[in-house]
Design brief:
Layout: E1 6-10, E2 24-28, H1 30-43, H2 49-59, H3 62-82
Antiparallel strand pairs: 1-2
Length: 95
């Protein structure tokens, strides 16, 4: 039976911010996570200490980097909204 309703995310670039460590994150419903956790127990998948350190180091600037990404996305969306060749701009607003 396939595992469904889970979100897989690369931690290598987004969380680490430097692309110098390989890792990943998965989130979803508890029953889905339990199945994945069991698979991980059987296969022994875990980060080595150095990669874990590198990801933790990068997470110190995660808030700043996400804020900058959002600011840049808004700047691009505003530019496109004013452009005569663009009919419609869709930008998700968390507010």
């Amino acid at each position: 039976m396939p595992i469904a309703c889970a979100c897989r995310h690369s931690a290598s670039k987004f969380l680490g911010g430097h692309a110098d460590a390989m890792g990943g994150v998965i989130c979803g419903a508890q029953n889905t996570i339990d199945k994945i956790y069991h698979f991980r127990e059987i296969n022994g998948a875990c980060l080595d200490p150095h990669a874990a350190y590198m990801l933790l180091r990068g997470m110190k600037t995660l808030q700043l980097r996400v804020q900058r990404q959002n600011d840049n996305a808004l700047t691009v969306a505003e530019y496109l909204h004013r452009h005569t060749a663009v009919e419609k701009v869709c930008l998700l607003d968390a507010a």
